[in-house]
Amino acid sequence: QVQLVESGGGLVQPGGSLRLSCAASGNIFRINVMGWYRQAPGKERDLVARITSGGSANYADSVKGRFTISRDNAKNTVYLQMNSLKPEDTAVYYCYADASSRPTFLYMDVWGKGTLVSVSS
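Above: the chain sequence. Below: its structure as tokens.
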């Protein structure tokens, strides 16, 4: 089955930047959509950005112009470049993939365990 491992979270000042990475591993057949969600304490988990295998990306309105999602299909890895960070961006960021694996080849939602991004002065 498929597993996702995030990295790159940390503490930054407002206006700073971070780059998150998420690598998929396992008996992968194909990965369609990959993306990032985030959840702050006491709030719902919201979509931040998603990207298809062909490179088409969508963003939440709150991060448009500041965040960029990309992926390396050969490495089964998705990235989130976060610039001009705001305190409101503070959350646990979760990697997501719509992935199929052998032997069933059925597409399933796969989630990483999350990485904390803290934005404060």
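The chain has no helices and eleven strands.
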